[in-house]
UniProtKB/TrEMBL annotation:
It comes from Hevea brasiliensis (Para rubber tree). It catalyses: L-threonyl-[protein] + ATP = O-phospho-L-threonyl-[protein] + ADP + H(+); L-seryl-[protein] + ATP = O-phospho-L-seryl-[protein] + ADP + H(+). Signal peptide: none annotated. The keyword Ubl conjugation does not apply. Residues 36-306 form the Protein kinase domain. It comes from the Eukaryota. InterPro entries: Kinase-like_dom_sf, L-type_Lectin-RKs, Prot_kinase_dom, Protein_kinase_ATP_BS, Ser/Thr_kinase_AS. Keywords: ATP-binding, Glycoprotein, Kinase, Lectin, Membrane, Nucleotide-binding, Receptor, Serine/threonine-protein kinase, Signal, Transferase, Transmembrane, Transmembrane helix. Its EC number is 2.7.11.1. PROSITE patterns: PROTEIN_KINASE_ATP, PROTEIN_KINASE_DOM, PROTEIN_KINASE_ST. This is non-specific serine/threonine protein kinase. The lineage of its organism: Eukaryota, Viridiplantae, Streptophyta, Embryophyta, Tracheophyta.
Length: 348
């Protein structure tokens, strides 16, 4: 028993040395959240609940994620988040302050984001509508976070669950990508593939369904849907709307085909948006959400497009609209796609 206890203690100490974040005492978290009372509840999901708290003695506001103790998937999420976000440092990522493990209860402690998640602004609080400048900045913030995860950190990190609910807004209206429970790591230069299909319906790369593999292209697809969602102010799939508008990607494509792509911009904005920026985001969103992974740009190209350091080719529509004619399973479809991609080397 003693040796097992010592072994457990050494594992925890290894986590702290390797992953960086501080280990909190359960007592401090219990006091901070007022005993995890319901009135401190910020939200809940498949793996547990998130509570608002104030650390005793320091008065620092925190968010505490309490992961379901009876969930083996919850345990995997706990280890995944400790192993990833605990070592990450970027202004557009939610910062993990530490963790706690008490018997079968698991806790992750984050910086508190006073403005909550992006989906609140898009759907749940009508009086807090985001203007175009804020939306465009949020899109660029998340792109910057993905650039760090895919290309700038010591390993490649595939987030696998990019959506407004996982983008938090700080007190200066900066966007921060969070919830790394589904994230996977690999070394640069290796094939960054995972064999477990993960994500949220509406944001899942169709190639995953066919091949069961997640790559950085998986994140690009979800980010493409995310860009369209933020710009259009509606969910990827909305069965309550008219038939031609049910699937967001299809609706934006159809509007572009008839020369009216800006009709898809959130009607609540009226005409108060920068048309060339909105058009860029909509077309880039369609390019990133192309059903063929090879047609999608990498995140460094996406950042260049959004920053204005590079321009989308005028005939990039040939690639985007090839979604209807390209068949990844046929030799002709692959050949046609490769020919189109050779025209636009900046995409990769």
């Amino acid at each position: 028993m003693i040796s097992r206890r010592r072994k457990f203690i050494r594992v925890l100490e290894d986590w702290e040395v390797l992953y960086g974040p501080h280990r909190f005492s359960y007592k401090d978290l219990f006091i901070a959240t007022q005993g995890f009372r319901d009135r401190q509840l910020l939200g809940k999901g498949g793996f547990g609940r998130v509570y608002r708290g104030i650390l005793p003695f320091s008065n620092v506001q925190i968010a505490v994620k309490r992961i379901s103790h009876d969930s083996s998937q919850g345990m995997r999420e706990f280890v995944a988040e400790i192993a990833t976000i605990g070592r990450l440092r970027h202004p557009n990522l939610v910062r993990l302050l530490g963790y706690c493990r008490r018997k079968n209860e698991l806790f992750l402690v984050y910086d508190y984001m006073p403005n909550g998640s992006l989906d609140k602004f898009l759907y749940r609080v009508p009086n807090c509508m985001l203007d175009w400048k804020q939306r465009f900045k949020i899109i660029k913030d998340v792109a910057s976070a993905l650039f760090y995860l895919h290309q700038q950190w010591v390993q490649v990190i595939i987030h696998r669950d990019i959506k407004p609910a996982n983008v938090l807004i700080d007190n200066e209206m900066n966007a921060r990508l969070g919830d790394f429970g589904l994230a996977r790591l690999c070394d640069h230069g290796n094939d960054p593939q995972t064999s477990h299909v993960a994500g949220t319906p509406g944001y899942i790369d169709p190639e995953i369904v066919q091949r069961g593999k997640s790559t950085t292209c998986t994140d690009i697809y979800a980010f493409g849907v995310f860009m369209l969602e933020v710009t259009c102010g509606r969910k990827p799939v909305d069965p309550r709307t008219s038939p031609e508008k049910v699937v967001l990607i299809d609706w934006v494509m159809n509007c572009w085909d008839r020369g009216a792509i800006l009709e898809t911009v959130d009607c609540r904005l009226g005409n108060d948006y920068v048309s060339h920026e909105a058009e860029l985001v909509l077309k880039l969103g369609l390019l990133c959400s192309h059903p063929v992974a090879a047609a999608r740009p990498n995140i460094s190209s996406v950042v260049q497009f959004l920053d204005g350091a590079a321009q989308l080719p005028e005939n990039v529509s040939s690639i985007i609209k090839s979604r209807d004619s390209s068949d990844g399973s046929s030799q002709g479809g692959v050949g046609k796609m490769n020919s189109l991609l050779e025209m636009f080397p900046l995409l990769h």
